[in-house]
Amino acid sequence: MNHERSRDLYDRALSVLPGGVNSSVRATQPYPPFVARGDGAHVVDADGNRYLDYVMGYGPLLYGHDAPEPVQSAVQKFASEGPMYGMPTEVEVEHAEFVARHVPSVEMIRFVNSGTEATVSAVRLARGYTGRDKIVVMQGGYHGAQESTLVAGGPENPRPSTPGIPPEFAKHTLPIPFNDPAAAEAVFEEHGDDIAAVLVEPILANKGIVMPVDGYHQRLRELCDDHGSLLVFDEVITGFRVGGLGCAQSTFGVTPDVTTFGKIIGGGFPVGAIGGKAEIIERFTPAGDVFQSGTFSGHPVTMAAGHEYLKFAAENDVYEHVNRLGRRLREGVEDLLEDRAPEYTVVGTDSMFKTVFTRDAPGSFEDHCEGGCRQRDSCPRFDACPKTGADVAAAETGRWERIFWQEMKAQGVLLTANQFESQFVSYAHTDEDIEETLEAYKTAL
Ligand SMILES: *Cc1c(COP(=O)(O)O)cnc(C)c1O
């Protein structure tokens, strides 16, 4: 493969864009493939190389790079007729009605422009609604680039995880390990009356994909109920990906008070949203007193794309297709690992997948959770399957990034470049693509 044009473009980019990119994860080594165009499940780079793509925009592209026809025509119509007004439109009402009809926790919704903006607004809303300051987050959880959640350490010593955030801000955030009910109980015991919300991804999806252990979310629900705190599910990545149109909350049977959305809900355009019980969401201005506003919020092109995206999924075999291929891929990788690297762990659910390069696990796959770790406690591999963000971080991250990812790319398969980010199967992927991908895994593992 020739990469001259990507290299030259990166050279230029480094002079005018910090790190040569507009979002940190994109700066892959030695230089990222600059994309010229997408084509179904593939992307073509500036040098004409064609890759099977599992990055899928880091989550939004449920259909791959060719949106269904109704999405494309809606986008064109709304882009050419507007593209935006700063006044309400019918399409945002339709999109809100659709989401409220399908997602258990949502009666009302406010649309914004990114997942980050959604979590920022959700935290402000929870604080305004409860009159309390503290929020509980999961270590290794990700809620976008925002002040209240870029916090490391534990409940006793929270500290900003990046320069630029005053330590005083971090004091109001209490990070605990995911999947550890005792740690959640302890933090409520100590701070219960001051906790506005628990903010949790139903599945840790930005740290290797970690499924919840049995009963974990139910316990968080009880603790929030007992202490008058809000349970906020960050479904920016799992929303309309895991659990189909009901989202991950329908899979786990736990209804949060507030849900944040992003990615798929905008049909490939910039989006975020905060949904939940009307009584809570109506605290946003102008219905209530918690300030929230945005020039581009409810952008007609985004609303039209998102609405047609979800409608198409409701009327076609979309989730059946992507979930079947996701499972086939995860099972296929497990078969390869059994011979080649039984210490590694396949994680993921529905159309999400990743292989975590864990350092030890039983040599056998007998009686294991097939098609990705389910945290079934009778599984012989249960103890080795990552439970927390720290477990994923302890894996062979360097090997993934420096060797494995590069080899997959050389074979024409684009995965996410670090050990932490999930990968996605789209509606454009085929059984043949999965076969080809497994062949590449066979060579690279
Ligand atoms: C992607 C993501 C975000 C941030 O969304 P942006 O649109 O990138 O700001 C927040 N939370 C979760 C769970 C995400 O996956």
List the helices and strands and how they pair.
Elements: H1 4-16, E1 35-39, E2 42-45, E3 50-53, H2 69-81, H3 90-102, E4 108-112, H4 115-130, E5 134-139, E6 151-152, E7 159-160, H5 167-170, E8 173-177, H6 181-191, E9 195-200, H7 216-227, E10 230-234, H8 247-252, E11 258-262, E12 272-276, H9 278-281, H10 300-315, H11 318-340, E13 345-347, E14 352-356, H12 389-393, H13 397-410, E15 413-414, E16 423-424, H14 431-444
Parallel strand pairs: 3-15, 5-8, 5-9, 9-10, 10-11
Antiparallel strand pairs: 1-2, 2-3, 4-12, 6-7, 11-12, 13-14, 14-16
Bound molecules: pyridoxal-5'-phosphate (PLP).
How would you describe this protein?
The protein has 445 residues and is α/β, with parallel strands linked by helices. It has two domains: 4-66 and 318-444, Aspartate Aminotransferase, domain 1 (Alpha-Beta Complex); 69-315, Aspartate Aminotransferase, domain 2, CATH 3.40.640. Helix content is 37%, strand content 15%. The chain has helices at residues 4-16, 69-81, 90-102, 115-130, 167-170, 181-191, 216-227, 247-252, 278-281, 300-315, 318-340, 389-393, 397-410, 431-444, and strands spanning 35-39, 42-45, 50-53, 108-112, 134-139, 151-152, 159-160, 173-177, 195-200, 230-234, 258-262, 272-276, 345-347, 352-356, 413-414, 423-424. The strands form four sheets. It has a seven-stranded mixed beta sheet with strand order 4-12-11-10-9-5-8, with helices on both faces. It has a four-stranded mixed beta sheet with strand order 1-2-3-15. Strands 13-14-16 form a three-stranded antiparallel beta sheet, covered by helices on one side. A hairpin with a 4-residue loop joins strand 13 and strand 14 (352-356). Helix 6 (181-191) runs parallel beside helix 7 (216-227) and helix 13 (397-410) packs across helix 14. It is globular, with a radius of gyration of 21 Å. It starts with a helix and ends with a helix. The relative contact order is 0.15. The mean pLDDT is 97. Pyridoxal-5'-phosphate binds at residues 114-116, 119, 142-144, 201, 205-206, 234, 236-237, 262, 272.
